[in-house]
Amino acid sequence: MRLHRAGSIGYAFRPWTDPKAIADGPAILKYVQDTARDHGIDKRIRYGHRVKRAAWSTPDARWTVDIEHGESNELRQLSCNFLFMCSGYYRYDAGYTPAFAGIENFKGRVVHPQQWTPDITHAGKRVVVIGSGATAVTLVPEMAKTATHVTMLQRSPTYVVARPSQDGIANGLRRVLPGKLAYSLARWKQVLLTMYFFNLCRRNPGRARQLLLGGVRAALGRDYDIAKHFTPRYNPWEQRLCLVPDGDLFKAIKSQRASVVTDEIDRFTATGLKLKSGSEIETELVVMATGLNLQVLGGLQVSVDGALIDWPRTMSYKGLMFGGVPNLASSFGYTNASWTLKCDLTSEFVCRLLNHMKSQGRRQCTPRNTDASVTEQPWIDFSSGYVQRSLPMFPKQGSRAPWKAHQNYARDIATLRYGKLDDGAMVFSNPA
C-alpha cells in the first residue's frame, strides 16, 4: 500500500515534516533516504546481496551468513555475533495469483503489481483491478485519472475509510512549537486515536461498523448499494482497514471513471472476464491485486549447531526473538498501527540487550520457555486470506508474556523500553 499515516510511520528520532499526513511512496522513500544519508547508514549498505543461510555455532558464539551476490549469484560469507533481521514478512519476488480458468485465452495483458514494469500503460484503456485490499483501493483512483474506465472487481468487500491527506492539527503544531515537540505530540495523537478505534472495533464491533459504513454512505450517497459493495462479512479490524486520502476512491466512483463489481470470476475470455453471475466485463488490462505471499525472515534458512530451525515449532519471544535461537532478533511491526512504531521499540530493545550483554560479559542470549502452562497461539490474529494461507509456516506465539505479542504500543513501551532484560525466560551465557 502506498499510503500511510505519516504521524506514526516516521521514526521516533526524526520528525516527519511533509505537510501530507497520508504519505505516498515517493515521500516515504525520500524520508528513508534522507535519514540514511544524514546518519551515514547509506555508506554501510551492501547492495545486490541476497542472504540465503545463517548458521549459529555455540562454541564460537557466532553466526556465519551465506550470501549470494550479483547476477552470477557469487557465494560470499560474513560472520557476526548478533543477527538482526529487518526483512519484513512479504515475499517480494512473486505475489499471490489465484488460478483462473481460461487465463491463457485472454488477448490483453495480465500483471501483478509486484511485477509491474515501465512498459505497462493504462491510459485510454479499459482496466480491471482484481481485489479489494490496500493495493486495489490505491490503484483504482490513480489509474482512473487517465484510463477509459477502471473496474474494481472484488469477491467480497473490505472496510474503506476516507481521511484528509493533510493533518490540520499536526501542521498547526509545527507552526507554533519546536519541530521535535510538535512531531512528538502529533505522533502520540495518532497513536492514541488508532488504539482507541482498534479497541472500539474489538469491544463494540457493531458501533464501529456503523461509523465506517456511515462514512462510505456520506461519500457515495444513499442510492449507492453500500450493502453489496462496501459491507464486509467480518467485523472491523479482523482484517486491515483500507485508507483512502481525501476520499479519492469515492470521488472516482462518483465521477463514473471507476466502478465496483462484487462477483466471482468464472473464467477469462479472449476479451475480458466472464463472471459467475453470467455477466461479462470487457477489458484490455487486468491487474491482479490479489495479495502477497508471506515468508519468515525473508526466506532465510537458519540452523543452530547444525540443526535446521523448523519455524512452526518455535515460539516468538516478545514478538521479536525466537525460543531456542540465540543472538537473533527480527523487526516485526503492528497489524493495527504503523509498522514503524514496533520496529522503533524493537531496535531500542536490541540495543539494550547488546549493552547489557557487554556490561555483564555475556556473549549469548537465548529465549527459552520452561513454563509448560504457556500454550501456543497463532502468530497473528488476522482473518485475511494472505495471513491464513501462510500461518502454518510461521512461528507460534504464547498465551502470555513474554511469549505473547501484544498489539499495543503503550504496553510495549513498558515491556521493551523499560522492562527487565533478565526476566527468567532470557538465558545469558558464554561458550563452554
Descriptive account of the structure:
This protein has 2 domains: 46-92 and 294-429, FAD/NAD(P)-binding domain; 93-288, FAD/NAD(P)-binding domain, CATH 3.50.50. 29% of the residues lie in helices and 25% in strands. It has 11 helices and 27 strands. The strands form 10 sheets. A 5-stranded mixed β-sheet has the order 5-4-3-19-20, with no helix packed on it. A 5-stranded parallel β-sheet has the order 8-17-9-10-13. Strands 14-15-16 form a 3-stranded antiparallel β-sheet, with no helix packed on it. The longest helix is centred in the middle third of the chain and has 25 residues, at 179-203. The protein is globular, with a radius of gyration of 24 Å. It starts with a strand and ends with a strand.
Index terms:
single chain; 432 residues; alpha/beta; FAD/NAD(P)-binding domain; 2 domains; five-stranded mixed sheet; 11 helices
Report the strand count: 27
Shape: globular
The main pleated sheet reads as: 5 strands, mixed
Q: Note the gap between the termini.
A: 48 Å
